[in-house]
Design brief:
Blueprint lengths: L3 H20 L2 H38 L1 H12 L5 E8 L1 H7 L5 H8 L5 H4 L7 E7 L4 H14 L3 H5 L13 H4 L8 H4 L10 H11 L17 H15 L4 H15 L1 H15 L8 H4 L2 H4 L1 H10 L16
Antiparallel strand pairs: 1-2
Helix pairs in contact: 2-3, 3-14, 7-12, 11-12, 12-13, 13-14, 14-17
Length: 321
């Protein structure tokens, strides 16, 4: 026989059940249940669709590696070129006035360049043109920056490995190879402050230069013994002076290197995609420019790793402008 306490508890429980039934109708519970099931199914479907699309892309690359090379080339060497946030301004005029560039010699050597002729007005100064590079003007860009890197007063040049034996200073490709000035390369070497840099900025330039390599040499930009090394040093100096972030500077240098060494960096893009599953636009520029990848040794290792991929044109890196 139920006690009075049990009877009262049962009545109270019944009233609570009726209250919650009114508060949350059965039809609403059913709808919530259906929606939850539908959402779970939709999530599973989306995950499955992503997996299928990823597999399709992988199969396409395996069946058609030429497509992979084509896509890599478009990313590394965009048809519109690469435009930095910096402008030439009076740099060209300063290089002419300082004797780092002989305007007539310079114009003569670039008169056959497709875009070079149009850009020669940079030498007159007051240029609003951005520092930009493409397949047609890459030689002009490397030569302008080469002259700038050679003459600009720099801690990298004054205290780095270039001057370990000053009697041999004129024997490097970046010095002995410069014939477009009104003075010798040794006379020009770190002689004028074209780009003003504070001691702190000089240190930042050195730090970045030590981490940037190029595939024609085994040396970092802190040892700019070739034209591309000297040109990269000049761009780093310009970018640091302008207050660009390290991240942006590495990105810009990678773009310059890519147009100076197109085959090498297309190979690198293919390597990252095939070996690591990373598309070129997701590759960290600092990693790509490191000794492991952008030095002559690193580039050779990558070249070996992708041998046999149809569509790859391997001609190797060169210091030729």
């Amino acid at each position: 026989m139920k006690t009075l306490k049990q009877i009262l508890f049962k009545r109270k429980q019944g009233r609570l059940i009726k209250f919650f039934k009114k508060l949350v109708p059965l039809w609403l519970v059913i709808i919530f249940t259906i929606d939850s099931l539908a959402l779970g199914a939709l999530t599973d479907q989306m995950i499955m669709r992503r997996q299928v699309n990823r597999l399709r892309r992988q199969l396409t690359e395996i069946k058609n590696p030429e497509l992979l090379v084509k896509e890599a080339t478009a990313q590394v060497l965009p048809s519109g070129g690469y435009v930095t946030s910096l402008k030439w301004g009076d740099i060209g005029k300063k290089l002419v006035d300082s004797g780092a560039i002989d305007a007539e010699k310079f114009k003569q050597i670039h008169k056959s360049d497709i875009d070079g002729r149009a850009d020669l007005d940079i030498l007159n100064g007051n240029s609003n043109k951005p520092i930009a590079i493409n397949e047609n003007n890459s030689r002009l860009v490397v030569n302008l920056l080469w002259a700038l890197g050679l003459i600009n007063k720099s801690k990298v040049l004054d205290e780095g490995p270039m001057v370990s034996d000053r009697s041999k200073l004129g024997n490097f490709a970046s010095t002995g190879g410069w014939t477009l000035g009104k003075k010798t390369a040794v006379e020009l070497y770190s002689s004028q402050e074209i780009i003003p840099l504070t001691p702190q900025q000089q240190e930042m330039v050195k730090k970045i230069a030590e981490n940037v390599y190029r595939p024609c040499c085994g040396n970092a930009t802190a040892f700019p013994d070739c034209n591309h090394g000297m040109a990269a040093l000049a761009y780093i100096e310009l970018a640091v002076s302008a207050g660009l972030s390290e991240k942006q500077i590495y990105k810009d240098i990678l773009a310059l290197n890519s147009f100076w060494f197109p085959d090498t960096y297309v190979e690198m893009a293919v390597y990252f995609q095939k070996q690591q599953g990373i598309s070129w636009d997701k590759v960290d520029p600092r990693v790509a420019l490191s000794k492991d990848y952008s030095s002559a040794q690193g580039a050779a290792r990558i070249n070996q790793a992708i041998q046999g991929v149809p569509g790859i044109q391997s001609r190797g890196g060169s210091c030729g402008a």
